[in-house]
Amino acid sequence: MSAAAQDEDLTALAKGGRQNFFGFLLRLLARLPFLFIAGRLYGPDALGRFASALVVVELVALLCSMGEKRGLAQRLAEGEEAHPANLVYDGMLLAIVFSAIAAVFFWFVPAPLFPSGEFTQLDRLIVLAIPGYALTEIVLAAQAYRYDIATTVRARAVVEPWTISIMAGVFVFIPALADSGLALAYLASIYAGLAVGLWSFFRSYGPPRRWRPEFGYMRKVTARALPLATADAIEWGTRRLDIFILGLFAAPAAVGVYYIAQQVASLPQKLKTSFEPILGPVITKNLKTKNYEAIAKQVCQVGFWIIAAQAGIALALGVPGEAVMGLVGPEFVGGTGALAFLLAAEVVAATAVVSEAVLIYVARGRNLAISVGTIAFQAALTITLILLVERLGYGEPFKAAAAAIALMVALGVASLVKALLLTRILGYPINNWRWALVYAVAPAVLVGWLATQLPEWAELAFGIPAILLTYGFIIWKRGFGPEDRVLFQRNKAEAPD
Length: 497
Description:
The chain is mainly α. It has helices at residues 3-64, 68-78, 84-108, 129-145, 150-171, 181-205, 215-237, 241-249, 252-273, 276-288, 292-318, 321-328, 336-362, 364-392, 396-426, 436-451, 456-479.
């Protein structure tokens, strides 16, 4: 690959990352009102019931999308179809069929959604989110293939989070809907995001042309997609399995507290998705030419960007963790320990995430086997640690912390194994670590500790910005080279979005 082509790939990755990083900031602003409304107005019990249902709904929806979130880019790149829209409509039809079956099943068998047995008839409507979520994954993947990341930002970072925040605030004041307000608000947010995605998709791809569903071809697509869909579901499931298991061993209130900690910790996780939509098309292009050196370089580059950003956000949220959790409500402060381990888990997971972005194309079976082993290990470790906490006589907050520790360890092991496998396949080392991270973390922790000595309002108002500025200045000076700084430089030739 020429130097110009490599620069073009790097520019595309940086542009997509910039757009979605801006979306991350928007999502952060929108997520905070939801956490406040859910914690203060609904309480931990309602949050626990909602979280348990959400785990199943989103996992099933991801399975029903048939791996198209990442697999669609390869199908479009390899397809000889005269009209690419037809390939997308094949995936959409499959998603509708499978998600409709799943929604009907869970409507009549709601026990997996609500393991505590506490739910209303309106709560059951959350199953309608399954087809909406699955279709959104597909249309946003189709747009990402054409380097349209702005639609993902609008749908996932603006429309969805603001819709759930606003509607949760509205429903809590309607007596007939208050008990099910969180589920209904989530349902509204999913279809609002889908509407945004469909609007851009129809403008970009248009209607199908001479399209007729070919069930033989669709069977092949399904068989090919199953390993990828399962890997997607497992990768997502590692972030939700802890809630499901915790729901079996702890009270709904404890699950609600853990859910809030997880939502806060998921904010740096969203930085990973800043590059995911654009990384797939770039990788598939280089795979066609077997340019493994370029792929390894891109994985290491993006991996470091993700780790650097996640570590900074994790420090800013974790060091003043008690104050952050206290914003949602005083009863949520007990989740501070879980928050710290969840934030650490997202940092150690970054290498697994970027490695898997390539493995799903070059070693689907082995990647799936590692993913299955990871989630099985996580499940066993989570149950073991929770039982150990119970045996030692510790309370519910320690159960939540145990679940978070299990997640952190499992993701760390997965990162190591997947990076080693990808190194072996590509023939080039995969390493996202740089010592500059240590140089930046140490003074940021010191600044954060000093901030915790201030009153809580000052700790949040001044401590968080001080941590970010300290960390950001040092990582920029000691860790970022010329190629890294492309991430923050807008190409003058770029057309505005």
